[in-house]
Each structure stands twice: as structure tokens, then as C-alpha cells.
């Protein structure tokens, strides 16, 4: 089975030449743009603990222009991204209906501006209000299911107050919830996972007692609840050090999910699909927006999801609107990196040219749309980290690196006179970027973050 997508399947990222432009719509659009279009193969085979294959640098010695020594370089391939193609991505969320015509040397400018972005924003606000009403009328079990769906759709950030309030209420009424759902391992595992994900203190005993009896044996009903076992498997990734019983539950879940996949694959292919996805990467390790796309795309094939549900419509709309923000930010990062690369003038060709990958990593750390500045500045920092890492690991001599480190420690570019040209250029742009960010935050927030930025770099 072939499902979208893995954020790190870089070999499959040659899709920029064929995807359509994004058109915002309340219907989900298959917009195969940059990292959200990547492919991944979901196996339905039993779980394997085979380790991942890690990318490795291959170093070669090449002649240096200096008379000091041979320098090492890597076999980094040129960037596979077409900057012009990325810059041409459609990021317009507004449709302006303008009628302009010419007659007898006069321009008649008739404008009827219909801002589609405003329409989508109003539509999203209406759907958010509908979801809030939906939350209020559901029981505890249904509320937990809804919270889980909102997270998978990547829209839970719109309902942080409501989710926090109701999880607090459930925690206060925990004994009632435990008695009501004592034999529903799915609900109890979901409750345990959501509370831990949101930072609540919850003892492992609540979860353990839901699937084990007083003798420490698994309760009979657990063996027949594959959906509950899958939820238990997902919850087990929230275990803390020393919670051996939950680790044992993970092994139990793996065994029985394996057995199910071997014997009942054809009987319930949709559940098998869920299991295969969880095996490949559990929810706790996934990036929300990648999970959201997968959840939306599969919604028409999964019986538990109502394709006309309010939360799904909200997820579709929010996904498209957020993706436009990501595209605009990526364009800015590429323009910045192109400017930096021109300043480098080919003197840092040995280093990684990874602006898109750096932005992707920044997105994974600050995924919600309101953190735009954070994502862009993180992406810039990661670009510099890649370059400096290659200077230290690959290209620089020991004497040069000692001088380079001293200049950074002093944070004084005037002391860089004895450095080679490629290091001077790197330090100059690093200092400029860091100081620019510090000035920006001082102007906007009145905070002096420069000492903290220096400390982080040192």
C-alpha cells in the first residue's frame, strides 16, 4: 500500500515540476507541494526492529589553495531543489476580481474586491465555534475521541483552553471515569496518553489496572479488543523511566498485533492499515501536519471517520491555509539563503546547501502557524549550524578552528584578521544574522536576547 508521506524521504522529493498550484477550498486539495508531498511505503508485514539506515558523510582529500595542507571535502550532492520553481509556488489566499478596460485614452478602473482569504477565515471561525459546541454535548469517552481526532487533524491548537479545561475536569472525576470505562482499554489508554501529552501528572496504575487483574494477569476481554491493544501500544510510548509494567504492555501489544496481522489481515484491512502506520512511526513521534495530511487523505476509507464531520472540514480548511503560510516562509528563507550564498562567493562550497531541509526541521519544532518568526529564524540558525558543523568536522584545520572558536567566544569580528577568508565570510554573516535578530526582538518585544543568543552559539 502506498500512502503519503515521509518528511525525510529526500530521494522522492523531485515533485516540484509536476504538482498543481494550491487553490484554497473547503474541499481538501491534493497539493503536492514541497515537503508535504513526500511518499512513504507503509508495510503491512509484522513488526520488525531493524534499525534505520543513517546517512553518512564520505570524506575525500582535495588540494587546498593554501600552502598548508590537503583539505577534506565531502560528496554532498548539489541541492535537488529548483529555487525558481519554489518561488513560483502559488501562495495567494486572496482573489481580487478586478475589471480594467481601456476606452478613448481613458482608463476605467472598476474594482470589486472579493477577498477569498477573508471568506476562508470566516468559514474557519464558524467551524471552530461548531466544534466547541460539539465538545460540550459529548460524554467523556466521545470527548477523548474528539480530542484525539483534533490532534491528528492538526487543529487542536485552536481549542487549547477547552481541551485543558475538560482534561482537568476528567482528572478531577477520574474515579468516575475509571468505573464507567473500566473494561474499555481503548478509552483508558487514550485518556492516559492524552493526559501525559498535555503535561498532567497521572500514575501508571490507572492504565495498568485497566488491563491487568489483581493477580497481574491480562484481563480476558483485552485479548479480543484489537483497537484497544493498538491504543495501548500508542500509549506505551508515554511511559517514564522505571515504568516496567507499561513497557511489558508494549511487548504484549506488539505480540498480539503481530498475530492479528498474520491471521486477520484480509478480514479487517482498515484496522491493519492503522497498525501498519503505527508500527512505522507511533503518534508520539510524528510531526503533526504530516499526520494531518495522512488522516485527511485516508478519511474517505476509514469507517470510524465521518467524511462530512465538522472537525474534518475544519482540518481540511486549516491545512490548506497553514500550508500557504509555510510556502511564503520557505520563499523568504530561500531568498535569504541565495543572498548569503552570493556573499559566500563559492568559498563555502564544501558545506551543505540545505535551506529547504533546514526549514523543514524548523517547521517540525514550531509547527503552529502563529510561530512564523520563530520558524524563519530557526531555519536560518540551522543553515548556519550545518555550515559551521562542516567547517569543524570536514574542512578546517586544527589551528584555524582554534582561532575561529576564540573569535566566537569574544564575539568580536575585529579579532578575525588572522582567519582564512572562508571563515571570515562565515563569521561576518553569522554575526550579522544574530545581531539582526536581537535588534528585531528588542524593537518588537523590548527584550535584549543577544546575551542568550551568544551563549547558545558558544
CA(first)-CA(last) distance: 47 Å
Strand content: 5-15%
User: Which word captures the global form?
Assistant: elongated
CATH homologous superfamily (4th level) name of one domain: Terpene synthase, N-terminal domain
Number of strands: 6
| Largest beta-sheet characterization | 2 strands, antiparallel
**Overall mean confidence score, pLDDT:** 79
**Order of strands across the widest beta sheet?**
1-2
Structure description:
This protein is mostly helical. It has a domain at 118-308: Terpene synthase, N-terminal domain (Glycosyltransferase, Alpha/alpha barrel), CATH 1.50.10.130. Helix content is 54%, strand content 7%. The protein is built from 17 helices and six strands. The protein has helices spanning 83-87, 116-137, 140-152, 160-172, 174-180, 185-197, 204-211, 226-235, 244-263, 269-280, 288-297, 310-344, 355-365, 372-395, 398-410, 421-445, 450-457; strands spanning 2-4, 39-41, 59-62, 71-74, 95-103, 106-114. The strands form three sheets. A two-stranded antiparallel ribbon has the order 1-2. It has a two-stranded antiparallel sheet with strand order 3-4. The chain has a two-stranded antiparallel sheet with strand order 5-6. The protein is elongated and about 75 Å long. Keywords: Magnesium, Metal-binding. Residues 115-276 form the Terpene synthase N-terminal domain. Its cofactor is Mg(2+). Pfam families: Terpene_synth, Terpene_synth_C. Residues 346-458 form the Terpene synthase metal-binding domain.
Amino acid at each position: 500500500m502506498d500512502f503519503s508521506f515521509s518528511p525525510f524521504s529526500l530521494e522522492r522529493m523531485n515533485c516540484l515540476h509536476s504538482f498543481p498550484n494550491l487553490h484554497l477550498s473547503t474541499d481538501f486539495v491534493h497539493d503536492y507541494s514541497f515537503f508535504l508531498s513526500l511518499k512513504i511505503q507503509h508495510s503491512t508485514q509484522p513488526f520488525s526492529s531493524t534499525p534505520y539506515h543513517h546517512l553518512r558523510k564520505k570524506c575525500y582529500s582535495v588540494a587546498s589553495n593554501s600552502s598548508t595542507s590537503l583539505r577534506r571535502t565531502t560528496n554532498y550532492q548539489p541541492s535537488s531543489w529548483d529555487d525558481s520553481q519554489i518561488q513560483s509556488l502559488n501562495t495567494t489566499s486572496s482573489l481580487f476580481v478586478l475589471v480594467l478596460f481601456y476606452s478613448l485614452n481613458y482608463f476605467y478602473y472598476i474594482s470589486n474586491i472579493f477577498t477569498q482569504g477573508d471568506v476562508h477565515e470566516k468559514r474557519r471561525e464558524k467551524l471552530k465555534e461548531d466544534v466547541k459546541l460539539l465538545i460540550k454535548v459529548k460524554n467523556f469517552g466521545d470527548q477523548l475521541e474528539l480530542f484525539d481526532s483534533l490532534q491528528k487533524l492538526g487543529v487542536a491548537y485552536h481549542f487549547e483552553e477547552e481541551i485543558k479545561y475538560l482534561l482537568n475536569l476528567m482528572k478531577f472525576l477520574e474515579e468516575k471515569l475509571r468505573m464507567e470505562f473500566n473494561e474499555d482499554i481503548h478509552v483508558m489508554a487514550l485518556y492516559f496518553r492524552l493526559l501525559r501529552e498535555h503535561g498532567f501528572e497521572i500514575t501508571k496504575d490507572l492504565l495498568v489496572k485497566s488491563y491487568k487483574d489483581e493477580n497481574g494477569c491480562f484481563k480476558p476481554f483485552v485479548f479480543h479488543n484489537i483497537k484497544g491493544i493498538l491504543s495501548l501500544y500508542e500509549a506505551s510510548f508515554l511511559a517514564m523511566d522505571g515504568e516496567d509494567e507499561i513497557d511489558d504492555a508494549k511487548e504484549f501489544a506488539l505480540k498480539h498485533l503481530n498475530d492479528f496481522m498474520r491471521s486477520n489481515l484480509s478480514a479487517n484491512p482498515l484496522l491493519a492499515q492503522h497498525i501498519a502506520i503505527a508500527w512505522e512511526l507511533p503518534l508520539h513521534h510524528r510531526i503533526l501536519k504530516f499526520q494531518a495530511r495522512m488522516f485527511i487523505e485516508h478519511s474517505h476509507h476509514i469507517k470510524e471517520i465521518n467524511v462530512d464531520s465538522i472537525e474534518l472540514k475544519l482540518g481540511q480548511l486549516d491545512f490548506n491555509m497553514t500550508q500557504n503560510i509555510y510556502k511564503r516562509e520557505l520563499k523568504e528563507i530561500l531568498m535569504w539563503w541565495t543572498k548569503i550564498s552570493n556573499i559566500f562567493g563559492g568559498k563555502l562550497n564544501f558545506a551543505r546547501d540545505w535551506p529547504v531541509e533546514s526549514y523543514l526541521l524548523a517547521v517540525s519544532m514550531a509547527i503552529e502557524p502563529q510561530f512564523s518568526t520563530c520558524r524563519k529564524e530557526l531555519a536560518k540558525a540551522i543553515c548556519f549550524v550545518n555550515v559551521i558543523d562542516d567547517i569543524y568536522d570536514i574542512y578546517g584545520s586544527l589551528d584555524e578552528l582554534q582561532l575561529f572558536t576564540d573569535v566566537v567566544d569574544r564575539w568580536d569580528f575585529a579579532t578575525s584578521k588572522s582567519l582564512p577568508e572562508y571563515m571570515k565570510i562565515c563569521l561576518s554573516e553569522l554575526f550579522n544574522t544574530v545581531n539582526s535578530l536581537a535588534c528585531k526582538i528588542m524593537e518588537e518585544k523590548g527584550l535584549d536576547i543577544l546575551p542568550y543568543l551568544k551563549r547558545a552559539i558558544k
